[in-house]
Amino acid sequence: MDLSVVILAAGKGTRMRSALPKVLHELAGKPLLEHVVDAARQLGTDDIHVVYGHGGEQVTEQLADLSVHWVLQEPQLGTGHAVAQALPTIDDARRVLVLYGDVPMIAVADIAPLVASEEVGVLTVKLADPTGYGRIIRNQDGSIARIVEHKDADQAERMITEINTGIIAVGAADLKRWVANLDNRNVQGEFYLTDVIEMASRDGHAVRAHRASSEFDVAGVNDRVQLAKLERIYQRRQADALMRDGATLRDPDRIDIRGSVACGEDCDIDVNVVFEGRVKLGKNVRIGPNNVLRNVVIGDGVEILANCVLEDCEVGAQTRIGPFARLRPEAVLADHVHIGNFVEIKKSTVASGSKVNHLTYIGDTTIGSGVNVGAGTITCNYDGANKHRTVIGDNAFIGSCTQLVAPVEVGAGATIGAGSTIVRNAPPEKLTLSRAKQVTIEAWKRPIKKPKS
Ligand code: UD1
Ligand code: CA
Fold first, then answer.
1. CB under 8 Å to 329, separation ≥6 — which residues?
2. Least buried of 51, 100, 163, 246, by fewest C-beta within 10 Å?
3. Mean per-residue pLDDT for 195-206?
4. Position 103 pLDDT exceeds 60
5. CA–CA separation, 452 vs 77, rounded Å?
6. Is the pLDDT confidence value at 141 over 60?
7. Where does 27-78 have alpha helices with state H?
8. Is the C-alpha dihedral spanning 125, 127, 132, 138 positive or negative?
9. Mean pLDDT score, 98-118
């Protein structure tokens, strides 16, 4: 089926009180408009037209990757006028679905039936408090006769609780004809898209109402309070999905997924964990409280203790991280590795069974297997202009408080004495250290505080 989607996103969004156009505000870490475009794509169409206006360039620049047709609406004279701007480039034979850039949780299951039908369709929902919305006026036979805006409605009409979500589907040729006949003789002086429904009905079309499955799926964002409410609902749905996939969430209301999480069975996730980008967890992964994981792949049986930040990295099976560890981009840990508190690892690989347990910086380094890196070790990878690599062989032992000045290599099985500054390669299997000789000054006395004069 040939479907074109028109997404209205030209409104000012005044109530956001923001320099950022409303549709660029984020739900679950993704701009509102992108959620809507993604939903449209899931219907199997690439013919997506976004009507923009306020803050125009910001929207088209920041969302340039969406590859949609951008249509400028200037000035903004109402929803009917907005749709009219997109119609000239849409072929008469296509079906048009109208969506909204500020209705981010629109569900494909709700719009697919509208699209599949050949009739004029309107997505409606019943609200306990319909104030402000357009009301659905039905014919005897159940079809929709017209939609009346709240501001134009009389007392009896305002009692109706079935409202217009704004989302409609209609043939392009019909829509073009009806939109061309719209006028703005109403309380708001706008060209209402909703008036198309009465025209359709008068032309002998049976206009069908399709009910949305939940009011949240069709809820628009007008201010930051509404946005925060939707965020919680969105997050809770993702949390529920994760639990259905076999994860234990210590508190499903205290997890944030801004992207996607795939997990193996029996993962256990404590409170206040934030997932961003694409995260993949193996089986039996345990994640303690207050962790941030962004674009990471975590192996089976990994344990991440409290308060760690992991970004763009890979963690092998049975490895233990934290508490208070930081894995930066291109950290690649093998299996059975231990990374402890206040350890930072960047662009480095750590092979099986190695331990970096306390107060250490490892950058641009290759660490072999079975290595023990003592507390307070620093790889000095930056000379002020360029980065250099450190290589540590299998089973090496790095004494505490060592500085490895890159480029430098520590051989397999080597031992580095504590407190050394290593500037040349240390041979395998030998003890290497660089330290001033320890002396004791017999005659030395501690200074004494002078008496106050
Ligand atoms: C509209 C519907 C109303 C429905 C409600 C659901 C009309 C006349 N009324 O009312 O029946 O119950 O949505 O939320 O359609 N927009 C443009 N260009 C414009 C005007 C609006 O792009 O010139 C966009 C806005 O950015 C917004 C959407 O269209 O995303 C809805 O516009 P808004 O003015 O908020 O319509 P409502 O009065 O809420
Ligand atoms: Ca609105």
1. 311, 312, 313, 346, 347
2. 246
3. 96
4. yes
5. 83
6. yes
7. 32-42, 56-62
8. positive
9. 97
Span from the CA of 406 to the centroid of ligand 1 (angstroms): 61
Number of H helices, E strands in the chain: 8, 35
- Give residue for tokens 């089976």: 300
Q: What is the tens place of the pLDDT at every residue in 348-403?
A: 999 999 999 999 999 999 999 999 999 999 999 999 999 999 999 999 999 999 99
**301 in ligand 1 pocket by Cβ < 6 Å?**
no
| CATH number, span 3-218 | 3.90.550.10
What does the pLDDT look like over 213-225, one tens digit per residue? Answer: 999 999 999 999 9
Q: Can you tell me the distance from the alpha carbon of 352 to that of 358, in angstroms, rounded to the nearest whole number?
A: 18
Strand pairing category for 144-148 and 135-138: antiparallel
Ligand that comes closest to the CA of residue 192: 1
SS3 label, residue 216 = coil
Which residues lie below 8 Å from residue 120, measured CB to CB, with a gap of 6+? 168, 169, 170, 171, 174, 197, 200, 205, 206, 207, 208
CA distances from 223 to 18, 22, 397 (A): 10, 9, 58
Q: Which two tokens stand for residue 246?
A: 């076999």
Q: Which ligand is nearest to the CA of 182?
A: 1
Mean pLDDT value of segment 305-322: 98
Mean predicted confidence (pLDDT) in 145-149: 97
Residue type, 424: R
CB of 279 within 6 A of ligand 1: the answer is: no
Give percent helix, percent strand, percent coil of the chain, each to the nearest 5: 20, 35, 45
pLDDT at res. 64: 96
Q: Is the beta carbon of 195 within 6 A of some atom in ligand 1?
A: no
54: confidence class by pLDDT, cuts 50, 70, 90: confident
Q: What residue segments make up the domains of the chain, in order of their start?
A: 3-218, 247-432
Mean pLDDT rounded to a whole number for the chain: 97
**Taking 60 as the threshold, does the pLDDT of residue 1 lie above it?**
no
Report the catalytic residues.
358
- The answer to whether the CB of 340 is under 6 A from ligand 1 is no
151, β-bridge pairs: none
C-alpha span between 247 and 450 (Å, rounded): 66
Average pLDDT over residues 115-134: 97
Residue (of 191, 222, 217) closest to 102 by Cα position: 222
CATH number of the 247-432 domain? 2.160.10.10
Q: How far apart are CA 47 and CA 41, in angstroms?
A: 9
- H helical segments located in 181-328: 195-202, 224-244
Beta strands in 236-328 (DSSP E): 247-249, 255-263, 267-269, 273-281, 286-287, 292-298, 303-304, 309-315, 320-321, 325-327
List the single range of 14-28, 51-65, 283-297, 333-347 with lowest mean pLDDT: 51-65
